[in-house]
Design goal:
single chain, 446 residues, alpha/beta, five-stranded parallel beta sheet, two-stranded antiparallel ribbon, 11 strands, 49% helix, 13% strand
Length: 446
């Protein structure tokens, strides 16, 4: 089961559809734009005869191009159906091929068909990629307000988006869960599980034939968990490549911003770099490597590049020149890739050293695994007073201590210490917010 491969296969079929040959325009919405960007590079899109990529909600700024055909890949939302009806009422392209990222409501399809007075729609299909793939076994819905699900009355839109994402992933992976389990303490997990079960039972599209295996234990299990059940794990420092980049530098749809860092050395090629397992073999192989092994792997990558550089310097004839020119695109690509990973590992190393993250991580593990409240409180206070340690790391240690010793520790004292050492009041208030969300009194594991 590979969500990256499944999503890429869908995009392959959209841009290489034999029913839509030749130059075309790709129409996307805000969310499918991220989906496509995480599995396809701009160069690959252009290589598939895609003349232009536009957002459906921002695509009225040019003259009609009736000589081009449009492939629209959008989520089947009411807003997108309204935009499509407007598009079909005054078409800018010669024909339209519609691909929905999830199961499209029949009533909306009927209304859309009635709007196609000029009969420019050639086909309608469903390609189930209603999520943003990150790794082979990880996708996200990019919900910035997801914590609102844990309020007493979460909005129907938030719940629906989570249900749609789960259903789409089941269809993309061609999996029918034999069992659906959820966290009993979580009302939102129960609500999502109930809706998923209802949808799977009601529509035969989810009923895939299952192949029995030697390790079969009764069929696929869909397990729905609530983050409030374990608030500790996200607070612990991670020491693998992908996790460190995400934690220390930030990753936004496979893009990492290095502009202004010492490791970028003012190189415009390093202002923003792409980290994609689908397009970068080194990253695909080492994204889960620990920090120590990663340094060795990057050193080997650099050594291989230097050997190729020496080979390219040995040009003595016309044949050597021709051979170099044939190798140059791959050589240039490898040069940029080496520079990217060297810059990333250099910046990570600098941050680890500057902010004493090894020391912070050791205390995090002590707080998570051992019970020694008095000693750990002294250690946390010492780190809060350490000028080398950043405000976010001080806050994380205080949060871990508060979760561990919510009932017995002096949490108020830690909050005062954070404030005294210039941690912003809105950040200090997160201590109480976390305890309400996932502390012992809020139903979390603590």
């Amino acid at each position: 089961m590979n969500v990256l491969a499944a999503t890429r296969a869908y995009v392959d079929r959209i841009v290489s559809d034999p029913n839509n040959p030749g130059m075309k325009v790709l129409l996307l919405d805000a969310e499918t734009t991220k989906t496509v960007a995480n599995v396809y590079s701009q160069t690959e899109i252009l290589d598939r005869d895609v003349f232009l990529v536009e957002r459906l909600d921002q695509a009225r700024g040019h003259e009609p191009m009736r000589h081009l055909k449009a492939a629209a890949f959008v989520r089947p939302t009411a807003a997108n159906f309204a935009l499509l009806r407007r598009e079909l009422a005054d078409p800018r392209f010669g024909e339209y091929h519609l691909y929905f990222a999830n199961v499209a409501p029949r009533a909306q399809l009927r209304e859309l068909a009635e709007s196609d007075d000029l009969e420019v729609v050639r086909q309608v299909q469903e390609f189930y990629a209603d999520f943003v793939p990150v790794n082979d076994a990880l996708f996200t819905l990019n919900q910035r307000q997801a914590l609102r699900l844990n309020t007493t009355r979460p909005t129907a839109d938030l719940l629906r988006r989570n249900v749609d994402g789960v259903l789409s992933s089941l269809l993309a992976l061609k999996v029918q869960p034999a069992t659906i389990r959820y966290s009993s303490a979580s009302t939102v997990a129960k609500a999502i599980a109930t809706e998923v079960q209802r949808a799977v039972a009601a529509d035969g599209i989810f009923h895939f034939k299952r192949r029995a295996t030697a390790s079969d234990t009764g069929g696929p299990l869909l397990l729905i968990l609530d983050r409030a059940d374990d608030c500790v794990t996200p607070l612990l420092s991670q020491w693998t490549y992908q996790a460190m980049v995400h934690e220390l530098l930030g990753v936004n749809n496979n893009r990492v911003r290095l502009k202004g860092t010492a490791s970028a050395r003012g190189d415009p090629n390093l202002d923003e770099v792409v980290l994609s397992a689908a397009a970068d073999p080194f990253y695909a192989q080492h994204q889960h490597a620990n920090f120590g092994d990663l340094g060795t792997a990057v050193k080997q990558l650099l050594d291989d590049y230097q050997r190729q550089t020496k080979l390219n310097e040995n040009i003595k004839s016309i044949d050597d020149m021709q051979s170099f020119l044939e190798r140059y695109p791959a050589f240039r690509s490898k040069s940029l890739n080496v520079s990217k990973h060297v810059a990333l590992i250099s910046e990570l190393s600098r941050l680890v050293e500057t902010h004493s993250l090894m020391d912070v991580s050791q205390l995090e593990q002590e707080l998570a695994c051992h019970d020694d409240g008095a000693s750990q409180r002294r250690e946390v206070l010492a780190r809060i007073g350490d000028g080398r340690i950043g405000g976010e790391d001080k806050l994380r240690l205080a949060l871990l201590y508060a979760l561990r010793y919510e009932q017995t520790g002096n949490v108020e004292g830690l909050k005062l210490a954070l404030a005294e050492h210039r941690v912003a009041p809105d950040r200090v208030s997160l201590v109480d917010a976390l305890l309400r969300y996932g502390g012992g009194g809020g139903g979390g594991a603590g």
